[in-house]
Write a structure and sequence with these properties.
With 393 residues, this protein is of the alpha/beta class. Helix content is 39%, strand content 18%.
Amino acid sequence: MTLQLSLEEGLFQRQTLYAEARRVVVKVGSAVLTDDQGVSANIIAQLAAQLTFLKETGREVILVTSGAVAAGRRRLDKPKTVHEPLKIKQALAATGQGLLMQAYEQAFARHEQPVAQILLTHTDLSNRRRYLNVRNTILTLFEFGVIPIINENDSVSAEELRFSDNDTLAALMTNMIGADMLLILTDVDSLYTGNPLEDPEARPVYTVARIDHKIEAMAGHSTSSLGTGGMGAKIRAAKMVAACGGSSFIGPGKRADILQALFSGEPVGTFFLPDMSRAINQRKHWIAYVLRPEGELVVDAGAARALAEKGKSLLPSGVLEVRGQFGLGAPVHCVDSEGGLIAAGLSNYAAADIIRIQGKKTSEIAAILGHKDHDEVIHRDNLVLFGGSSTGL
């Protein structure tokens, strides 16, 4: 498959997806929202106008925003320092979150558009019940005609509770609610084939049909003052969304009419098409992208082929090694003997029991453990492949 489409073909694909998109997530980062004075009131006003426009076209809209730390830093007059302790960032976020929401509330009020705040940590999504509660809250807000404004709860997020960046959070939200499109507004105008400051042959990439290592490598060509995520994180977010059948856009967030330009078909930014050949459902997205693995199962070549090519369950006979201590039902990664990532899944057995039955036949499980709750170490219904074939997903 061609990774990049021609301008004409790409625009046709874009316009088709724009017309069909009924639910959209917009993510704006600190590189767009902030200036030397903190959070920019002008940018907030532009965003409110643009998102209200999007909603008035009949679409449901979510905003994922950064900016709480910057707002708090300005309010408390605390200059940024090298190796700033986490507790300082948490205090700044606690101070700035209310200010950020106040700015959004006032900006959207000018358009008579109600908004609601949702603050999340990774724990809110890794627990299945809480994950579904968040989803139900968002869907109810849509029914009320409200635009949800989502941010990481930086005031309480310790390292183990954090999302890696708000691009990841936005992708998780997109897939959680089954949104059609993720729009990432940043301070670069597009993805480039090379560094435009160094390579006179570098060209903007308008439409990407499929994200692979070549596209991912292009992330290093973009010069930007991006926040925690960077262009690499944005492409990873687009890849997550594509895997669930959604499309993504990365483009200039400081342009006042960016969303109108985008939906009117202007060739702006970089657009990523959905990967419909591998689209996974929301529960498998939760397993693959939300849950953090508690261990690894090293599988032999035969098991690797059975998983990747036939979408089979993982049997104990295919397990070569167990890494980590984890319990029944824990999320784990399946890797090959060279460490290559094959799949993510939920284990039917604890690590200690898998060590005892690894390399054995299913018929031997009961005699070894004294019980047999499952034939499989990971059932195919709880298994998600990374790359390759998606048979059975």
